[in-house]
Amino acid sequence: MNYxxxxxxxxxxxxxxxxxxxxxxNPVSVLGLFFVLTVSFLAIFAPYVSPYPTHASRFVNFAxxxxxxxxxxxxxxxVFGRDILSRVFFGFRYSLMMGVVVLSLVVIPGVVxxxxxxxxxxxxxxxVIMRTTDIxxxxxxxxxxxxxCSVLTPSVFNxxxxxxxxxxxxxxxxxxxxxxxxxxxxxxxxxxxxxASRSHILFxxxxxxxxxxxxxxxxLDMGWVILIGSALSFVGLxxxxxxPDLGTMVADGAKYLPDQWWITxxxxxxxxxxxxxxxxxxxxxxxxxALEEV
Amino acid sequence: xxxxxxxxxxxxxxxITSRGTVRAVDEVSFSVEEGETLGLVGESGSGxxxxxxxxxxxxxxxxxxxxxxxxxxxxxxxxxxxxxxQSIQIVFQDPGTSLNSRRTIQQILELPLKVHHLGNSRxxxxxxxxxxxxVELPPDYMYKSPNMLGGGxxxxxxxxxxxxxxxxxxxxxxxxxxxDVSIQAKxxxxxxRFQEEMKLSYLFITHDLSLMRNVSTRVAIMYLxxxxxxxPTMKFFSNPFHPYTKMLLSSIPVVLPEEEAVKPAxxxxxxxxxxxxxxxxxxxFHTRCRxxxxxxxxxxxxxxxxxxxxxxxxxxxxxxxxxxxLEKGVxx
Lengths: 294, 332
What we know:
- The complex is a heterodimer of chains A (294) and B (332).
- Chain A is mainly alpha-helical and 294 residues long.
- Chain A has a single domain, classed as MetI-like fold (Orthogonal Bundle).
- Chain A has twelve helices and no strands.
- The longest helix of chain A has 36 residues.
- The model of chain A has no long low-confidence stretch (mean pLDDT 86).
- The C terminus of chain B is likely disordered.
- In chain B, the strands form two sheets. An eight-stranded mixed sheet of chain B has the order 6-7-8-3-9-10-12-11, with helices on both faces. Chain B has a four-stranded antiparallel sheet with strand order 2-1-4-5, covered by helices on one side.
- Chain B has a single domain, classed as P-loop containing nucleotide triphosphate hydrolases (Rossmann fold, 3-Layer(aba) Sandwich).
- In chain B, helix 3 crosses helix 4, helix 3 runs parallel beside helix 5 and helix 5 packs parallel to helix 6.
- Chain B has eleven helices and twelve strands.
- By secondary structure, chain B is of the alpha/beta class.
- At the A-B interface, helix 1, helix 8 and helix 9 of A face helix 2, strand 6 and helix 3 of B.
C-alpha cells in the first residue's frame, strides 16, 4: 500500500510539473509571474534592498529636494528630498498588503455564501443571499468605497474594510453559478442518496470543483484591488502621509507635473507593473484551467 | 420470496415550469418483489427516470405513496431516516458525471462507509479493496482519479459505490446505455451475479427492450408518465396486449431468422411521444394508437389484470377476468 501511496504523491508532483509546463508555454503569463515575484521580493525585503530605508517614513532633507534621477537617486527625490526608489519599494508593501488582506477577508464569506445560495437555489435562502449581493453589485464599487471612506476617517485599515465590503458579492456571484449547476450533477446526487451531510456535499463535493475558477478570479482581482486601493489613496481616502503608498505618492507628485515628472511617473509605473503582473498571471491560470477541463 | 420490497402506489410527480405543468409521472403503481428485477421501459420523456429519482428521494412526490418493506418513504431523501439510505442505492446513467473527478476512487468508495460509520479507517480501506476486487478492478485503482478511468471502469466504480453499504434495493437508471456494447455485457453479467450473491432487488430502468428480455423478471412499460402494461418477461414478449407494447416489440431490430420468427408483424410507429406538458385527454397513447376508437380520447382507461400477473391499461381490455388492483394481484 505504501508503494501505491508514493505513486499517488509522485503523480501529484507530475501533475504540478505538467501544469507548470503548460503555464510556461505562455511567455506573457511567465512575464506576469516575473513581475509579481520581483514586486513581492522587493516588498518583503524593502528595508534591506532600498538604498535609503529611512526615507520611507517621516524624513526631510531639503538640501536634496526635487532632484531628477541620478546615480545617487535612481528615481530622483521628492519635494522633501526623499529617495523615490526607496519609497516605491516600501509602497509595494502597502499595495500587496491591500490585495492580500482584502482578498483573504472577502474570499471565504463570498464563496461560502455562493455555495449555500447555489445549493439551495429556488428557496428563500437563495433569494435572501442573492438579492443582497445584487444590492451591493448595483452600486459602482469605487463610488461605494469612496462613500464609506469619506464617512470614516481615512486610513489604510478603513480603505481595506471599504473595499472588502464591496468585493465579496463577486465571489458569491461566481460560486453561485458554479454551485447551482454542480448540485444537479450525478456525483452530488449520489452523495445525497448515500446520506452524506450538507457540509460534506458543499465543501467536499462542490467546492473542489469551483477551486480553479476561484483561483483564477483571485489572481485577476489582486490587480483590481491594488488599483482601487491606490485610487482611494490618490484621492486622499486611503493611506495617509507619510506612509509611502503608491497612490499617495502619485497624488503628491501630480502638483509638480510636468517639471518634476519623476515624482509621479515612477510610482505610477510601479502600480502598473504590479497590476499588470497579477492580471497576466490570472490570464495564464484561466488558460491553464480551461485546458485542464478538456 | 414473494414479499414486496418496494411498493409504489398512485405516484405522481409534476414539475411546475414556465411553460406549464409537466406531468412527468402520473398515477403510477407498481411493486418490486424481493430478489427480482423489475424492468421499467419507456421512450425518453416517458418519466421512467423521474420514477427512479422519486423512489430514491431526489424528487419529492407530488402525491401517492412509496413504501419500502411496508414503511412509507414518500418524501425527499433529506427527510428519510439514515438507515434507510443504506438500503436503497442508485446507479446513474452517465458514469462520466456520477463520480467526482476531484476525488480519488478511495474517497468515493469510502464515503458511504464513512456516512454510515461502518468500520474504522483500516476497515474501510480493506472494504474499498474488497469492493474493487468484486467489480474486477485492480486494488491500486483506489489512488486514481475518475478521469483516469475508462467509461466502463467508472461504471464499475459507481456500482461498487452503490454496493458498499450492502443495500437491499438498487435502482439502475440505464446503467449501460452510455457504454460500449462489449462492456455492457460485462456489466450486466456482473449485476446479475451480485443480485444472486447479495440477494438484491433491482428496479432496472432502460429503453433497451432486448436487454430487458435477458435481465428482468417482470417488465413494466411506461408511456407519458403512465404504466401501460406490466407482465412477467416471458408473457410480455410472447403475448403483449397493449398496442404500444406491440408497436415497440415490432420495432426491435433483429439479426437471426429465429428471432424474426417470434417477432410480431411490423407495425410502423407513427409520430413522436407528445409533450408531457400537454397530455392528450383520455388515454395518452390514442394519438399514435392503431386500434384507437371513440372512447380512447374521452375516458382514461383503468388498469386491468387480463391474465394472472399481466396488467394492461387500455380500453381494448375491459373486464376479461376479474378487475383487480395492483395490491391484490401481482405475482409471478
